Amino acid sequence: MIRLFWRDLTLAFRSGGGFGLGLGFFLILVTLVPFGVGPNSERLMAIAPGILWVGALLACLLSLDRIFALDFEDGSLDLLATAPIPLEGVVAVKALAHWITTGLPLVLAAPALGFLLHLDSAAYRWLIITLLIGTPALSFIGAFGAALTVGLKRGGLLMSLLVLPLYIPTLIFGAEVIRRGAGGFLVATPLAMQAGITAGSVALLPFAAAAAIRVALR
Amino acid sequence: MKLIYVKNLTVARGGMPVLEGLSFDVSSGEILVLRGPNGAGKTTLLRTLAGLQPPYAGTVETAPDAVAYAAHADGLKTTLTVRENLMFWAGVYGGRDIGPALRDFNLDSLSERPAGNLSAGQKRRLGLARLRVTHRPVWVLDEPTVSLDVASVDLFAAAVKAHVASGGAAIIATHIQLGFEETVFDVTPYKARMDVVRDDFDEAFL
Which fold is adopted by the domain B2-205? Predict the structure, then answer.
């Protein structure tokens, strides 16, 4: 399984890999927003938590279909399914690799982009914490969506439709924590809800995704 | 020693049975060659033997972790080198030594090349070399000689012979003569009858 993890990371960093795709999209989106809504810092401050979270979510979505589709096309997924690694483990490892190459860079880049959006100084801590807690859920839910659509040609649109509704709770709680944190209110409840969604996704969705892949490989 | 034991097997593609009533077994040291026209269901049968799809009816008994499967697609990553590709699969199957696999398929001189730069035949050789690092007794091969030249087919045949001589077995769907002592199994007579009404219709949706 560690082999698979390193292979996925190596592939992401080699030419044509997915690394940087989500991050680049995130950077572009967040730098364009001030041009779109104007440089009024009051207004930017108000929308910053939402924009940062929506940006992170869409950036994550962008690279999801690569998780299994590439392996399906070149036949690796068949071979992995007959390998001595359980398919649930394959899904978990690939989702983790997706998080390392997509979610983690977003977490690291977000503070700099928060500055561009005049994010309240009290909110930086919560921005990093919510992204750190929330983005693994995006990768694991996304891996489930990718597994459901793995055998389909041009399954990307269907996958987005399946995955986006499942992303909404993470988005709501994430942005809510930042908003409350910026206002100096208690953040424990939305933060706990978000952590719960992540924990549930990481624990359960590899099994669902593996079942979906088994059906797709038949 | 029996490595695969198939009894009264029916295999289905897309919910429709394609072959039915198959019964055979494969012992160690045996090479079973499947023959039959295109679309007869050889690939479906091999995928069922490899455990990628469940039997429609009947049973397939294999020792756990006995089957190494090689399909039409080689499962290579084009941006990884030949060595990295093989090392990955060796690692997945718990091994480290890829030297014999590189030697057997004459890939030594190519080992640092990205797999994407290989010719079709070289890719195929790399895909087959993967079998050597799985250390599994039963090789289930689907048209393994596609795009191989005469010399490479000989390399492949030698590798299969060495594998069965060391107690393994191979089930190969192929249209060419590979020149070893083989048991030929023609699947044509087992074509599933389409005029039979089957009562388990909702299987098609599973």
Answer: Rossmann fold (3.40.50)
